[in-house]
Amino acid sequence: MTIGTSHDTTFTRAAHRVLEHLTTTSGLATWAVCRVDHHGSHTLAVDDALGVLHPQVVLDGPLGLGATSRVVAAIMFPDGQPFGELIGFGDAEATYGLEHAASLARVFASLLGSLASAESMLAIERRITELSDGLSDPLTGLATRQGWEQRLRRDDQYCREFGESAAVMLIELDDLKRNNELHGHSAGDEQLRLAGAVLREVLGERHFAARITGDRLGALMIGVSEHEVGELERVARQALVTADVSAAIGIGRRHPETGTDGALAEAEGQIERTYAVRSAVIADANQAAALMEAMERGEIRAYFQPIVDLRTGEVTTIEALARWQSPDGVREPDQFLPALQHAGLLGALFDRMLDDGLEQLVEFRALLPNLQLAVNFEFDTKPVNSLLETIRERLDRYGLPPRALSLELSERQTFELPTDARDELFAIAELGVHLMLDDFGTGFASLETLTSLPIAGVKLDRRFTGQVVKGERESIVVKAMIALAAETGLTVIAEGIETQLQCDRLVRMGCRLGQGYLFALPQPADSLAAVLAAPLVSTF
Question: What are the tens digits of pLDDT across the range 463-478?
Fold first, then answer.
């Protein structure tokens, strides 16, 4: 009994005939074409006389491993890239011997590899030429809902046929309705334009995106690994925050048994859980009291991530990052910062980060006497004219010099600063505190910002850090940004370093400091002492 995919292509028909022929001539009861990739192995087409094995089934282990007779032939693309396996097995002896069956399998596996390569390349070319189909939404520049549904059906067939991996990203703008009600539809339209621009930039030309509903965008990503999906999600989250677009993101991965419908359901479930978490915090009238109590109980506190001298591996600075150790586990900032902002508690959070950070800095300076602390600051955190007073009082309390502290300001908030805020920054810099420009290169700051404000350094946005290994053109851009900052006498810190290759190339470009998962994750103070005790990496 031959079972295959419903998408009748040359590859599918060939797989059916190959399996039928092998079952008839080899004497082995079961034959299957399996796709093998980074997700594991699953069946694409099956001929099973017993009717037990079916296509589109994820395999827990090697197929037919305990059978009396078993043959396996690798299915390879002509360029040597692996595609899958042709497997036959049964409890009877092969009709003309196992070696004869294996020889036949190798011949047919080579044929299937060539067909899979040719049809896969044609399908990819069709997908690339169709990327602009339905790009008619005037606000986002993305495809319409109709184009989205058509693409889902086509690409699901493609993935089912060739066993390709896929994932769906859904982005729901959670402030769109409120913006329309408070500021008119032009405000909501601007949010949509910004979100569409972010999605186009993050996805590039490889993946398909659409506006699915009034406040929801979607992206369909084909041939992506788990790491690539996670990286695209992280970059999208960061870019939306930088663009000041509030949104919930859901990710769903396609599985052979459930297809893209299952991926959509998974992504929608993530968005629902995100809103459920937010609702649990901000829906009732006691949200402010509940969050304040969490801070008073020490549940919302600082985690620390080191900033490292890329040449020696020595830690120069620790950045204080907010985390909520709730009864349900550790929550990332995007799960509670919006609630804190709505409740007017960002000022209290800044004070907590400053207190936690300076207290730990006193302790850590016993290991590294010149260690510094970096804390993020937003101008809507507290009245502008109270910032200098707060910083001076905290430094006096912990007996630390001003040079031990740096404030990180996002590019967005340095754009068109009011006079009183600008004066406060100059006073803080004159005190000796370092002012760092965060997310440098995202488009908000100008050369005038670097020269007209008392900025001591810049943090190169993580999207540029990732580009240093992509190609010559991208590397030239990053090198020019580092040189520009250095020429103006600014310290340069590269964010989001994840590989040693990125680290090495940044050093050669003149970047001295960096932070990222290559060195250490954000972590509680009690586990950071071991990180500080020895160099984290030695480039040279």
Answer: 888 888 777 777 888 8
